[in-house]
């Protein structure tokens, strides 16, 4: 048996088409891309398993004439896993269609807002050190504002201890 270039080209084509479809925002195309990747992997494992032989039954053929059953078992397992993940993706597509009447994933506005932030050093992320003027309007409410009643009571009870210290003394069961 002489090796041909056809099978590796088919495998490469299936992988390329699968990856291309996975990168789309349409969930149906993502499902098709996943199916293509699963089939490409199955064909790759089957082609790498060696030449076909006799059925792997003891006593039917010699040990050198039998085909290896491990790649067949791996492919069968991969088919079952691909079926399960495909069923899950179909359920996600159906749910998306029922909720918003489309199956295309759009860019989330919160993701855009987070991506537009300027990078900060980790030391500058302490809420006590952040200047409220530098924050976006949506972030100001979390840092700037009236402290809660618990924070006010802790500040009155322990004036020497910062409110974000881990070693803050317990507050239950103690009277001052």
UniProtKB/TrEMBL annotation:
Q: Name one GO cellular component term.
A: plasma membrane
Q: Which InterPro entries match?
A: CPA3_antiporter_subunitC, NUOK/Mnh_C1-like
TM region(s), chain numbering: 6-23, 30-50, 70-93
Q: Does the keyword Ribonucleoprotein apply?
A: no
Q: Where is the composition biased (Basic and acidic residues)?
A: 108-124
Subcellular localization is given as: Cell membrane
Question: Under which name does UniProt file this protein?
Answer: Multisubunit sodium/proton antiporter MrpC subunit
Q: What is its main location?
A: membrane
Chain intervals for the UniProt region annotation (Disordered): 108-176
Tell me what organism the protein belongs to. Answer: Blastococcus xanthinilyticus
